[in-house]
């Protein structure tokens, strides 16, 4: 996983293997660090969308009063994020058949029998906002936050970027 840290206008890129499970699903999805200076390696940078880049910062992983932040687009962890992280808890999401589900971040969205499609809750409201297929070939986005998929993204050439978007 890649992450960038710095202060006073400088920044350093780091790469390391995830070594912390922030969501209790048994999969390592974050790199443990000590951000708050308490001497404990109980903080983390997490990659919850599975793209290999840190997208959430967590202070006091696993604590009832743990705090989650996401990048505001400027490269700072400025936006507080409320993320459901209790073991067994999960995101609410809707299948393509309209059935409601709870789980994740890895689920069997494409009904292929494998829980390998990744849900992401960008705004921290407990509803999945995005789902990406395990092979990255397709994804769905809830653009208006109502819990229903609005746009389907397709990566036809396999380069990791969507080539087309279609209304669902």
Major sheet size, sense and barrel closure: 6 strands, antiparallel
Percent in helix: under 10%
Mean pLDDT rating? 79
| Ends distance | 32 Å
Count of distinct strands: 15
Number of helices: 0
Specify Rg, calculated over alpha carbons: 16 Å
Helix and strand run = EEEEEEEEEEEEEEE
Which class best fits the helix and strand makeup? mainly beta
Low-confidence stretches: 84-88
Strand order of the largest sheet: 10-11-12-13-14-15
Q: Give the count of structural domains.
A: 2
Shape category: globular
Q: What is the percentage of strand-forming residues?
A: 25-35%
Account of the 3D structure:
- This protein is mainly β.
- It folds into two domains: 1-83, no CATH class; 91-167, no CATH class.
- 0% of the residues lie in helices and 33% in strands.
- The protein contains no helices and 15 strands.
- It has strands at residues 2-5, 12-15, 30-33, 43-46, 56-59, 67-70, 79-81, 91-94, 100-103, 106-107, 117-120, 130-132, 138-141, 151-154, 164-167.
- A six-stranded antiparallel β-sheet has the order 10-11-12-13-14-15, with no helix packed on it.
- The two termini are 32 Å apart.
- 29% of the residues are buried.
- Mean pLDDT is 79; it is low at 84-88.
Concise overview:
It is built from no helices and 15 strands. It has strands at 2-5, 12-15, 30-33, 43-46, 56-59, 67-70, 79-81, 91-94, 100-103, 106-107, 117-120, 130-132, 138-141, 151-154, 164-167.
């Amino acid at each position: 996983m890649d992450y960038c840290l710095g202060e006073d206008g400088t920044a350093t890129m780091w790469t390391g293997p995830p070594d912390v499970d922030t969501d209790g699903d048994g999969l390592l999805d974050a790199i443990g660090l000590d951000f708050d200076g308490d001497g404990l390696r109980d903080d983390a940078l997490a990659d919850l969308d599975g793209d290999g880049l840190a997208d959430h910062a967590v202070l006091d992983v696993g604590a009832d009063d743990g705090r989650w932040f996401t990048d505001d687009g400027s490269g700072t962890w400025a936006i507080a994020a409320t993320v459901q992280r209790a073991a067994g808890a999960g995101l609410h999401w809707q299948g393509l058949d309209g059935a409601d589900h709870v789980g994740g971040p890895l689920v069997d969205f494409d009904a292929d029998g494998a829980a390998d499609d990744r849900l992401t809750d960008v705004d921290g409201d407990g509803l999945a906002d995005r789902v990406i297929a395990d092979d990255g070939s397709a994804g769905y986005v809830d653009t208006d936050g109502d819990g229903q998929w609005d746009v389907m993204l397709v990566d036809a050439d396999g380069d990791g970027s969507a080539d087309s978007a279609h209304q669902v």
